[in-house]
Amino acid sequence: MRTLVLLALVGLGAQLVDGSLGMAYGVTSTTLLLAIGTNPAAASATIHLAEIGTTLASGAAHWRFGNVDWAVVRRIGVPGAIGAFAGATFLSSLATDVAAPVMSLLLLGLGLYVLARFTVAGLPTGRLGLPLRKRFLAPLGLVAGFVDATGGGGWGPVGTPALLASGRIEPRKVVGSIDTSEFLVAIAASLGFLVSLGSQGIDLLWVAALLLGGLVAAPVAAWLVRLLPPRILGSAVGGVIVLTNVRTLLRSDWVDASSAVQGVVLGFVAVVWAAAVVWSVRAHRRAVASQPAAGTASDPSPAPEPATAPR
């Protein structure tokens, strides 16, 4: 019973972060399952089964608050589902130990860019509103879906920074579109696991506990991301990306850092991240104080729109 309660709390916390920052549900939940000795394939299958429900609830909530770009959902979600099915069916025979640090290095670069760009200059507006093309979204979806299924998480960490770095879509719509399209990825990955594994190693009570926690958090997260100013949200997301991938690199065979070194480095990254968020908060407040209705050049974040029902 204690395990089920813990899993429900993990599901709640992971979905709260994922729904407001566009990542971390799979990574957080998978880490816990692996820590208690769950087989990697079974852990990923358990998470993705739970995500069918949590992503559906999260997508509906984001849609309700106007956080979804359906063109992006369609163009990235379908290739993502294909990549997820392939990743799930090959997980048992595919070693991802080498691929993980390479991917983390690329994501770290994107994370540093997002963190610096939003903290220093606010929301990029030069390309805001320009369409995102299929030749960008389709390969991104394939890679993100494959990484998500093989690693138990990765759809958000791969997709969110790439869309943010493009500067063509508002941060809240990046988060909402990534969360909504993840529903297709979760279904495809779950089907892949069921085809290759059956129900072996999957505890349906664990799935239900994670699902329950996620369902509670989904509407709260979708509401929260609409209220956060884009500049602050971008700094927060960038910090999550950097911290997560620095941790992966430190624990990889490439670095194999000691626990003490990991603690020092991660502590330093956390302090820098916190300072960046504080800087963005202060910059946003200065901008609101000077031009409360329209923002300023230093923080071109649009004024929050009133919550309206979607058309």
TrEMBL record:
<feature type="transmembrane region" description="Helical">
    <location>
        <begin position="260"/>
        <end position="281"/>
    </location>
</feature>
<feature type="transmembrane region" description="Helical">
    <location>
        <begin position="175"/>
        <end position="197"/>
    </location>
</feature>
<dbReference type="InterPro" id="IPR051598">
    <property type="entry name" value="TSUP/Inactive_protease-like"/>
</dbReference>
<dbReference type="Pfam" id="PF01925">
    <property type="entry name" value="TauE"/>
</dbReference>
<comment type="similarity">
    <text>Belongs to the 4-toluene sulfonate uptake permease (TSUP) (TC 2.A.102) family.</text>
</comment>
<feature type="region of interest" description="Disordered">
    <location>
        <begin position="290"/>
        <end position="311"/>
    </location>
</feature>
<keyword id="KW-0812">Transmembrane</keyword>
<feature type="transmembrane region" description="Helical">
    <location>
        <begin position="204"/>
        <end position="225"/>
    </location>
</feature>
<feature type="compositionally biased region" description="Pro residues">
    <location>
        <begin position="301"/>
        <end position="311"/>
    </location>
</feature>
<feature type="transmembrane region" description="Helical">
    <location>
        <begin position="98"/>
        <end position="116"/>
    </location>
</feature>
<protein>
    <recommendedName>
        <fullName>Probable membrane transporter protein</fullName>
    </recommendedName>
</protein>
<keyword id="KW-1003">Cell membrane</keyword>
<dbReference type="InterPro" id="IPR002781">
    <property type="entry name" value="TM_pro_TauE-like"/>
</dbReference>
<keyword id="KW-1133">Transmembrane helix</keyword>
<keyword id="KW-0472">Membrane</keyword>
<feature type="transmembrane region" description="Helical">
    <location>
        <begin position="136"/>
        <end position="155"/>
    </location>
</feature>
